């Protein structure tokens, strides 16, 4: 192979057509790599925000409901809760995902962990009946970043969770309060309980306060490099180089449930000619793709428009703002990891 291969001779994500069956989808429903070792013991509550320590005890009490199957860790712990659902409500970066992953690690097998988007994509790919069959009998369904901006998806998840709870499955969920929401930590919980209707009385709501531990300087943005630097990325396993527009178009031909297969093995993702996204559909697909890259702990090297500016002002002011803000935070982190 030439010492400096052209982009056409290199591996591109746009050439990958993943095929992910139900078994692979189920196997992927585990905490992201960076949270695989999360536990209640290595969660560090902020002493300035007592609700964080209280949340740890609430999760410990919820885990006590599995009794001896957790290895007897909670024989002297708090009394197990009567409700089969736990909802962790709070702002960005207060440790909700860490606590959710810690709870998942304490649950007996079978157990599943995924984002709201991953579960709705699973239902879309398998069909409702097959998704119910796949998830039925699980000890825990952990849902990170429960979304409330799509009534159809929210009602779908409400119906699905209702069936699973009736079968004995317990549910734990988190959601982010948008940064501009007044009374941080209050409205998200109210919206959540209202939208899931019949499930509301099954959840114990825990509000977690605190500052975003990942918060960056407001002036910091995604790293941009010259296109030649992207093209010069080494031709090796785990490294890809794509034209941004071509990759976005390819995402439209792959079901979001299969994005996990699209990024399988990705370590460094090169993107050339990054430009603002033209429409909401492409933007939401890109958000789902960014989530999978972030879970894979991939790095991004990009040229063109900074990746934190690909979502237009109208998008950031609309109903999906929370998704775009989360994606921006992750894009900034992944480009800085590469730099």
TrEMBL record:
One of its GO terms (biological process) is cell division. The gene is zapE. It comes from Amnibacterium endophyticum. This is Cell division protein ZapE. Keywords: ATP-binding, Cell cycle, Cell division, Nucleotide-binding.
């Amino acid at each position: 192979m030439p010492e400096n291969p052209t982009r056409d001779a290199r591996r591109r994500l746009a050439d990958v057509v993943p095929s992910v069956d139900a078994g692979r989808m189920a196997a992927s429903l585990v905490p992201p790599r960076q949270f695989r070792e999360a536990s209640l013991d290595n969660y560090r509550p902020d002493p300035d925000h007592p609700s964080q320590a209280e949340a740890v005890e609430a999760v410990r009490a919820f885990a006590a409901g599995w009794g001896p199957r957790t290895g007897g860790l909670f024989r002297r712990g708090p009394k197990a809760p009567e409700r089969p659902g736990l909802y962790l409500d709070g702002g960005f970066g207060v440790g909700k995902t860490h606590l959710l992953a810690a709870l998942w690690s304490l649950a007996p097998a079978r157990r599943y962990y995924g984002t709201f988007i991953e579960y709705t994509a699973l239902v879309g790919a398998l069909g409702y009946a097959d998704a119910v069959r796949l998830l039925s009998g699980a000890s825990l369904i952990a849902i990170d970043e429960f979304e409330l901006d799509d009534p159809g998806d929210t009602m779908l998840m409400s119906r699905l969770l209702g069936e699973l709870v009736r079968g004995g499955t317990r549910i734990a969920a988190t959601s982010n309060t948008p940064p501009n929401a007044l009374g941080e930590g209050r409205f998200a919980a109210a919206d959540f309980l209202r939208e899931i209707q019949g499930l509301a009385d099954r959840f114990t709501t825990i509000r977690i306060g605190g500052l975003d531990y990942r918060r960056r300087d407001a002036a910091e943005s995604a790293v941009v490099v010259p296109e030649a630097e992207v093209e010069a990325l080494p031709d090796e396993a785990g490294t890809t180089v794509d034209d941004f527009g071509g990759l976005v178009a390819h995402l439209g031909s792959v079901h979001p449930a299969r994005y996990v297969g699209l990024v399988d093995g990705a370590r460094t993702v090169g993107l050339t000619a990054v430009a603002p996204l033209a429409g909401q559909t492409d933007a939401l697909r890109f958000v789902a793709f960014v989530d999978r890259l972030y879970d894979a702990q991939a790095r991004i090297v990009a040229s063109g428009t900074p990746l934190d500016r690909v979502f237009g002002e109208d998008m950031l002011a609309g109903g999906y703002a929370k998704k775009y803000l989360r994606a921006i935070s992750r894009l900034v982190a992944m480009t800085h990891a590469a730099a």
